[in-house]
Every structure is written in structure tokens, then in C-alpha cells.
Design brief:
This protein has helices spanning 10-35, 50-60, 65-77, 81-105, 112-121, 130-135. The protein is mainly alpha-helical and 137 residues long. It has two domains: 2-79, no CATH class; 83-135. α1 (10-35) packs antiparallel against α2, α1 (10-35) runs parallel beside α3 and α2 crosses α3. 14% of the residues are buried.
Length: 137
């Protein structure tokens, strides 16, 4: 959104960062609980469990308790969703950056809106197919 000029206001930028914090907390919760990893002392040490995950989410998501409870239940029952989301985000950003470099190498200006319009026109694609489809010219 910042690349498209939508985060000019400090409040909007803080909102985006708060969303990033929430997504990071969901990844820690998802991976920690489902892989039985060690929890920090701040959350009681030992192995991550549902209660420690609840405390982590409550500390890092600034939303009503009902929203946090929904997220907690969602990630307890959907192992791997949170890190999968971030893998997709990273792939998207890398593909966008590659497309920008390729346009520059061809002597063309890279237009982010055109890139996104093209991506949306492709519909739903598997992540394995997305980079090639987005950079095909």
C-alpha cells in the first residue's frame, strides 16, 4: 500500500505496522503450538500450548477480545495457515521486485498498478505458477 501512496498518514502507517505485528504473532503461535516448540519465560516457559498462545495473541493483537478469540481458535484448528500466508506474501513481493527489475532491464518503466491489475486478471493460481504467470510478457 505504501508503494501506491496509501500510507502517507502516520496513523495509516501505524495501522499497517500493527497488522504486521498481528501476523507475526500468529506465526509464532501457529509454529510454536503445532511443533511443540519451547515458549519464552515471558509466557511461562516449557512448551507452547493453547493457553500460552492465548497470552501471546492477547499481548500482540490490539483488537476486541472476540476477534482475538476467533484468531486463537482459527490457528489452533488450522496448522500452517499463518506461515503459509507469509510465504505467499514473500513470494508475491519477490515476484513484484523481479518484474520491476526485468522492466528496467528492458528499458521500460515499471508500473505497479499495471502489475497488480495483471495479477488480478489471472484469477486464482497456485503459488508455483504465480511467478511465471506474473512475469510472462
Amino acid at each position: 500500500m505504501a508503494d501506491l501512496g496509501f500510507l502517507e498518514d502516520d496513523g495509516d502507517r501505524l495501522g499497517m505496522l500493527d497488522g504486521q505485528r498481528m501476523r507475526a504473532a500468529r506465526v509464532v503461535f501457529d509454529i510454536g503450538v503445532h511443533l511443540g516448540l519451547p515458549a519464552p519465560e515471558q509466557y511461562g516457559g516449557g512448551t507452547w500450548d493453547a493457553d500460552k498462545g492465548w497470552a501471546l495473541l492477547r499481548d500482540n493483537i490490539h483488537m476486541p477480545e472476540s476477534f482475538i478469540r476467533f484468531e486463537w481458535m482459527r490457528y489452533l484448528g488450522w496448522p500452517g495457515q499463518a506461515p503459509s500466508y507469509l510465504v505467499g506474501q514473500r513470494l508475491w513481493q519477490q515476484t513484484r521486485d523481479h518484474a520491476a527489475l526485468a522492466a528496467t532491464a528492458r528499458g521500460e518503466a515499471f508500473d505497479l498498478r499495471t502489475f497488480h491489475d495483471h495479477a488480478l486478471s489471472l484469477g486464482s493460481l497456485p503459488l508455483q505458477v504465480l511467478p511465471a504467470a506474473l512475469t510472462r510478457r
